[in-house]
Amino acid sequence: MIYRQYGQTDKEVSIIGFGGMRFLEEDFQEGNYEKCAELINYAREKGINYFDTAPLYCDDQSEKILGYAFSQMKKDFFVATKTSTHVTGDKTSDDVLRRIETSLSRLKIDKINFMHLWCVLDYDMFERYTQKGGLFEGFLKAKARGLVEHIALSTHASGEDIEKMLETELFEGVLLGYNATNFAFREKGLEAAKRLKRAVVTMNPLGGGLIPQRADYYAFLKQNAEDTVAKAAIRFNASHPEITVTLCGFSNKEQVDEACEAIKDLKPITDAEKLQIKSHLKASLNNVCTGCGYCDDCPKGIAIPKLMDAYNQYIITDKEEDILRRIKNHWQIKAEKGGALQCTACGKCERACTQKLPIIERLREISAL
Ligand code: SF4
Ligand code: SF4
Description:
- With 369 residues, the chain is an alpha/beta fold.
- The chain contains 17 helices and 10 strands.
- The chain has 2 domains: 278 residues, Alpha-Beta Barrel (TIM Barrel), CATH 3.20.20; 84 residues, no CATH class.
- Helices cover 43% and strands 14% of the residues.
- Helix 8 links the parallel strand 7 and strand 8.
């Protein structure tokens, strides 16, 4: 395992991080966490010492699963969790303090190493969260009480907005979505973190599953013929010296092995290599849906992430018929239930979209088909 310093802190964290959002449902049913704990232990044995979780992940079980494993482990690892108003409903500093106490008791640890202001979608939201008397004060109070060691930002904003947020110097690190598909959208954020000596933790290196799903399209990422595309995509993130941790959501030991193999003989990526990758990507690929699901609360019951996933296929292949094929064969969505035709253009989903996608326009295109 390779370790990098987390920003300007004294923490040396593994460049592969354990994303605690992909435990399999059958592995944590009825509070039996043994199999998940085995996976967590396995990752620790492989040298992974950065564990990321959040309330609500895995039916709100993720923190509890990690806590179960941690209670049997030597305390030589680091834990990151999160809270915010629009995901967990915490509005005041007291709400944040209560949330942190709950997380600590679920995780069975006495302090959270990296506490994230969660899912900040843009600079306006950041300003609301950090205004005087707002929930950010809860983070500061928790830090003053020793419940939290370092405060970090978790964001889906553009690189430009991330730069402005980091320049406030409120955060020691930033967690952002970054992968071989959307990296141009967040490059400015990475540059700002480097300049300001802030840690960068990346989530979603596989583009919400899009990259391995379209292994043929993304084959250009591979360095060796025997590589899997998933391994190549993880290596892409980890090979950025300014990226401190590449989070991978693990469901089984094979995936842990694959991520650890991806960083063997790791070399820093060059600007020329990045340019080459960009030339392979269509510009429109910056606009793919990552499947994060934040838009998935449509008053008309439209299955937005699934329909946007179908639209992703079209972006890659340029074939409109691929949209319908995916909707019918893969997702089995019927026009009258959960289909694009029901959209009233209320805009709720677009306000929530982490990639700022023109969802309404795409739904219109799908309806026309
Ligand atoms: S704009 Fe359409 S798809 Fe989006 S939330 Fe409103 S009705 Fe649903
Ligand atoms: S449409 Fe946007 S918010 Fe919805 S799943 Fe895709 S990227 Fe996430």
